[in-house]
Write a structure and sequence with these properties.
Keywords: NAD, Oxidoreductase, Tricarboxylic acid cycle. It is an enzyme of class 1 (oxidoreductase). InterPro entries: L-lactate/malate_DH, Lactate/malate_DH_C, Lactate/malate_DH_N, Lactate_DH/Glyco_Ohase_4_C, Malate_DH_AS, Malate_DH_NAD-dep_euk, Malate_DH_type2, NAD(P)-bd_dom_sf. Its EC number is 1.1.1.37. It catalyses: (S)-malate + NAD(+) = oxaloacetate + NADH + H(+). The chain is of the alpha/beta class. It has twelve helices and 14 strands. The chain has a six-stranded parallel beta sheet with strand order 3-2-1-4-5-6. It has a three-stranded antiparallel beta sheet with strand order 7-10-11. Helix 1 crosses helix 11, helix 4 crosses helix 12 and helix 5 packs across helix 12. The longest helix is centred in the last third of the chain and has 32 residues. The chain is globular and about 55 Å long. Bound molecules: nicotinamide-adenine-dinucleotide (NAD) and (2S)-2-hydroxybutanedioic acid. Nicotinamide-adenine-dinucleotide (NAD) binds next to helix 1.
Length: about 350
Amino acid sequence: AFHWSSRKPMRVLITGAAGQIGYAIVAMAANGDMLGQDQPVILHLLDIEPAKQALQGVKMELMDAAYPLLVDVVATTDLQEACAGVEVAVMVGGFPRKAGMERKDVMAKNVSIYAQQARALEAHASRDVKILVIANPANTNALMLKEHAPSIPAENITALTRLDHNRALAQIAARAGTHVSNVRNVIIWGNHSSTQFPDVAHGTVDGRPIREVLRGEEDAAWLDGEFVETVQQRGAAVIKARGLSSAMSAASSACDHIHDWFNGTAPGKWVSMGVYGDGSYGQPAGLIYSYPVTCQHGKWKIVQGLEIDSHCAAKLKASADELLEERELALACISEAAAAAQ
Ligand code: NAD
Ligand code: LMR
C-alpha cells in the first residue's frame, strides 16, 4: 500500500482490543502516539469469541478514521493469526477489577491466559518482539508470560507502571502549582498494586529537588502521607468515580512506555517500567519489578547508584514480598487450570 513514510510498517498486536483500554489505545497507536509520527503500523487486534462482533466494529471505526499512518488492520479471534510476525505486543486482554477487589483477585482468571498467549507469541511473533503487559495483575501476568516463553529474551517482557509514574508526576505538579512536564524522575518501585512505593526522593520540579520545592511542614507531611496513598489508590478511586477502571489514561501511559522504550528517554530523565529484575537495589532477581529505567537504542537499563534510606528499603521489600506471594499463587492457578483441562 502507498504511504508517504519510507519506513516499513510495524506490526503491533493489541489483545483485548474490543475492551475499554483497547478502544482508546488503537486510536492512539494508529495516530503515531505509540511508535512515532513517521512510523506506519499494521494493527493486529485480538479478542475472544463473545466480543467478535464488537471487534469488527472497532476495525470499521479504524478504517473510517482514515489515519495516515495506519496501513492495515487484522481483527481476529485466532491467537496464532493475531501473533503472526508482530514486533510489538500490548497485552490488555483479560478481566478488569471491579469495586472492592484487589488486583490480585483477578489472578485466577488472568494468569492462565498469559501462559497460553506466551506460547503463541513464542511460536509466531517476530524473534525480537517487545511485550508490554497491562492486564492485572500486570507484573505477575508478565512473569507468567516470561516463564512460558523461554525463547523470548527476558528483557523484552515488561509490565505497565508508567500509569502510576504519570499519576505521581501529576500529583506533584498540582501541589507545586506547575505544569506536569516540569516534574521529573519520580520512581514507582515494585508491584502495580497498593504496595507500590511512589518515591520522590530523587525527583525534581523545574530542575530543583521536589523536597526543596515542597518543603514546608504541611508539604512534607503531604509527601510522606497523602501523596503516597493517592498514587497507590488512584486506580481504585477511578473505578469508584467511573464505575469502570481507568482506560484512556492507561492507554496513554502504555503509549508513553512503548514510545520511550523504542525511541529512548531524554538525557537526565528516567521513567518507571516493570522489568525482569537482576537483583538491583537488593530486590529478588527473577521478578517483574518496577524500577527507574533509562532507554536507549530499544533497550532499557535500570538506573543504578541511587541512595535508598531505611524507610524506602522497607517499602521496596514489602512490594517484592507481595510479588513473591503472587508468583506462588499464579503458578498454583496455572497448574490447577492445566489439571482441570486434562
Ligand atoms: P475490558 O473488560 O473492557 O476489556 C478486556 C477485553 O479483553 C475484553 O474485550 C475481553 O473480551 C478481552 N479478553 C478476555 N480474555 C481474553 C483473551 N483470552 N484473549 C484476548 N482478549 C481477551 O477491560 P479493560 O478496562 O480494557 O482492562 C483490561 C485489563 O487492564 C484489566 O485486567 C485491567 O485491570 C487492566 N488495567 C491495568 C492497568 C495498569 O496500569 N497496568 C491500568 C488499567 C487497567
Ligand atoms: C489502574 O491502576 O487504574 C488499573 O490497574 C485498574 C485497577 O484495577 O486499578
